[in-house]
Design brief:
142 residues, mainly alpha, 4 helices, 87% helix
Length: 142
């Protein structure tokens, strides 16, 4: 969701100069209101497309994980949990100083990406609809 909110801020900053120009135009109130409405509609459309894109990404990730989980071989179904458990053991050992070496920053980054992808992929279907609704509500409030 942070990516979508970041994108919403980008959309808002792209439309802000247009909204500022419309605000300072010396035209009738009705014409100004119509232009402001058009700008807001453009902003809502862009935000809606961003939410749809994010939902499609989450659905694609979910399909990959479901295909792996329903795969024919034991290894295909379990490689992600095994990988995450391996990282968990490494993190615990690193935290208690049980390793002969310290984990590199890249290992921590890989852990964050792996855990994030695993968790997000597993819960994408539950999150996609409320996230899209929250994005639209966020845009409407602005």
């Amino acid at each position: 969701m942070a990516a979508v909110v970041g994108f919403l801020e980008l959309v808002e900053s792209a439309f802000k100069p247009i909204a500022d120009v419309v605000e300072h135009l010396t035209i009738s109130g009705d014409q100004k209101a119509q232009l402001q409405q058009l700008v807001l509609q453009g902003q809502l459309t862009a935000a809606n497309q961003a939410a749809n894109y994010e939902q499609q990404l989450l659905e694609a990730r979910t399909k990959v994980i479901l295909a792996e989980a329903q795969g024919g071989s034991w290894l295909q179904r379990n490689w992600r949990p095994i990988t995450m458990m391996t990282f968990l053991v490494l993190v615990v050992c690193d935290s208690f100083g049980l390793l002969a070496f310290r984990l590199a920053a890249e290992a921590w980054s890989l852990l964050k990406i792996g855990l994030g992808g695993y968790v997000i992929g597993r819960s994408a279907e539950k999150v996609a609809v409320p996230m899209a609704q929250a994005v639209l509500e966020h845009v409407r409030r602005r």
